[in-house]
Amino acid sequence: MIRAAALLLLCTTTARAGAYCADLTALTDHTTTEIALLDGTPGTCTTSLDLTGARAINCRWPFDYRADAAMDAFIALLNATEHCLNADGVTDQDVNHPDSYDLRTFDTETAQVSVSIKDKGALQQTYVFLRVAPAR
Fold first, then answer.
1. How do beta strands 101-107 and 125-134 pair?
2. How far apart are CA 78 and CA 93, in angstroms?
3. In this predicted model, what pLDDT tens digit does every residue of 56-105 receive, in sequence order?
4. Full DSSP string of 41-64
5. Residues 132, 24: contact at Cβ < 8 Å?
6. Using CA atoms, how far apart are residues 28 and 44, in angstroms rounded to an integer?
7. Please, is 70 exposed, middle or buried when counting C-beta atoms within 10 Å of its C-beta (0-12, 13-18, 19+)?
């Protein structure tokens, strides 16, 4: 019984990771503007334009302030992104900011993908973000 449950969990996690990779590829190809966390939670995604007219997709997931679930989602998203892109993320430099954050950026030939977690003390929320922009 325990083996069956473990196998089901492994298959479900693998399937979700595969779906995430497909969705991440669709974001970088600009064929979709939506993506979900590995647990299936859909992101709130918006499109932004930079000064050159390049389009970026910005997705966010809110959590209770400094909740363990936020860090778990960030780590899962970060690991899945590393796997999908077959690349290591570069850690952003520290900034002078009253709230904490962690940002990892992945540069590929076609896109720049960022995964971050940010505490918003004034809102009493922690956000996990995914940003997909054209390669620089």
1. unpaired
2. 17
3. 999 999 999 999 999 999 999 999 999 999 887 777 655 556 567 889 99
4. PBPEEEEEE-TT--EEEEEEEEEE
5. yes
6. 17
7. buried
